[in-house]
Write a structure and sequence with these properties.
- By secondary structure, the chain is of the alpha/beta class.
- It has three domains: 220 residues, HUPs (Rossmann fold), CATH 3.40.50.620; 71 residues, Tyrosyl-Transfer RNA Synthetase; 69 residues, Roll (Structural Genomics Hypothetical 15.5 Kd Protein In mrcA-pckA Intergenic Region, Chain A), CATH 3.10.290.
- Helices cover 44% and strands 14% of the residues.
- It contains 18 helices and 15 strands.
- Strands 1-6-5-2-3-4 form a six-stranded mixed beta sheet, sandwiched between helices. It has a five-stranded mixed beta sheet with strand order 9-15-14-11-12, covered by helices on one side.
- It is globular and about 70 Å long.
- Belongs to the class-I aminoacyl-tRNA synthetase family. TyrS type 1 subfamily.
């Protein structure tokens, strides 16, 4: 482990947030001298962010915890273009009203993780539409476009992915990387921002912004990227059979959120404790050292701490109690539910609650004896569940529980 002099880099390194840095020694020295303003950009393509964005949200939280100023950059302007990174096709274009609604929903999440205000280390939220929509095309091409070569832009993964698959890459999207680089330049001017952070797939975009800012302003700025977190099967963290794990409570409730963390694969428990909780590192190291069945204790702590950060301690502990009662065969209050209209096939129930991704998977689970209704095994994949009065409890294995309601 590298020895750093600044609290910021020691914290990020200790908790495993660092994948690449453009100039570690320079950033370490800057962070040791005073407050550093750093930003991460988030496009407003939905009314909520999901768990896949949580590493970046936590990175801003760590920046503030280390005594520096987080800048949340909402991409009100770039959302109108669409980031081609990792995408096979162009995104649907949103209206100004859609984007404004999405930003309002996303801000609520950030207010759970960051302290906003006017102090030197208080977080601020800015919208790149404030400057991007005011750009004049010819002056922008002359003053900014001349710093980018088509040769280099064609080497970017986001461009090559589309070209290799012979899928259209619009000129609109091709400009995205220039606009993102311009954001760093503009934030350095407006807010004294010296640091951009992001996921490992944003490295090229971050380097573009650093080089543009140095060439135009002569300002020394820095970049940090985080490692990609994947599930054991190689899929991106934050995706389940039911879709994205959203951070807004009206899209994914506290109990389902708690269960997402409780169902963490053994191999990720230590990583998640470091990056998604505020537990002291001594406690993290103790929990990640647990073996065998004892690792379930660490998963419960992870689920409760992560849920408390987003939804509050009361909701987190309520979810933990509900799960404990359910596993013990007791109360089922607070479980995810599915309306049946009075009856539903067992296959539709399993897929509707998100316990299985397909009817085929549901049939296999039934054949394995893993499916129960009110704690009684189901062995017929053609079974119809009649729900005329009280809710019926559906379980898959020892971790997934839900209610079927009329």
């Amino acid at each position: 482990m590298t020895e750093y002099s600044s609290d910021l880099l020691r914290l990020l390194d200790d908790r495993g947030y660092v994948h690449q840095m453009t100039d570690a020694a320079g950033l370490d020295a800057l962070a040791s001298k005073g407050v550093v303003s750093g930003y991460i950009g988030f496009d407003a393509t939905a009314p909520s962010l999901h768990v896949g964005s949580l590493v970046q949200i936590m990175l801003l939280r760590r920046l503030q915890q280390a005594g520096h100023r987080p800048i949340v950059l909402m991409g009100g302007g770039t959302t109108k273009v669409g980031d081609p990174t990792g995408k096979d096709e162009a995104r649907k274009l949103l209206t100004d009203e859609d984007i404004a609604t999405n930003i309002a929903g996303i801000r609520k999440v950030f207010e759970r993780f960051l302290t906003f205000g006017d102090g030197p280390t208080d977080a601020i939220m800015v919208n790149n539409d404030d400057w991007l929509s005011k750009l004049e095309y010819i002056p922008f091409l002359r003053d900014v476009g001349r710093h980018f070569t088509i040769n280099r832009m064609l080497t970017f993964d986001s461009v090559q992915l589309r070209l290799e698959r012979e899928q259209p890459l619009t000129f609109l999207e091709f400009n995205y990387m220039i606009l993102q680089a311009y954001d760093f330049l503009e934030l350095s001017r407006r807010a004294g921002c010296r640091l951009q952070m992001g996921g490992s797939d944003q490295w090229g975009n971050i380097v573009n912004g650093i080089e543009l800012t140095r060439r135009v302003e002569g300002t020394e700025v820095f970049g940090v990227t985080t490692p990609l977190i994947t599930n054991p099967d190689g899929s991106k963290m934050g995706k389940t059979a039911r879709g994205a794990v959203w951070l807004n409570a009206d899209m994914v409730g506290p109990y389902d959120y708690w269960q997402f963390w409780r169902n963490t694969d053994d191999s990720n428990v230590g990583v998640f404790l470091r990056r998604f909780t505020d537990l002291p590192m001594d406690e993290v190291r103790r929990l990640e050292g647990l073996q065998g069945a004892d690792i379930n204790q660490a998963k419960v702590v992870l689920a409760t701490e992560a849920t408390a950060m987003l939804h509050g301690r009361e909701e987190a502990e309520k979810a933990e109690r509900t799960a404990a009662d359910t596993f013990a065969g007791g109360s089922s209050a607070g479980l995810p539910s599915l309306s049946t209209g009075g009856s539903i096939s067992i296959l539709a129930a399993l897929t509707g609650l998100g316990f299985c991704a397909s009817n085929g998977e549901a049939k296999r689970k039934i054949a394995e004896g893993a499916v129960k209704l009110d704690d009684q095994p189901v062995d017929d994949p053609a079974h119809t569940v009649v729900v005329s009065g009280d809710p019926v409890k559906l379980s898959l294995g020892k971790k997934k529980y839900g209610l079927l309601v009329p």
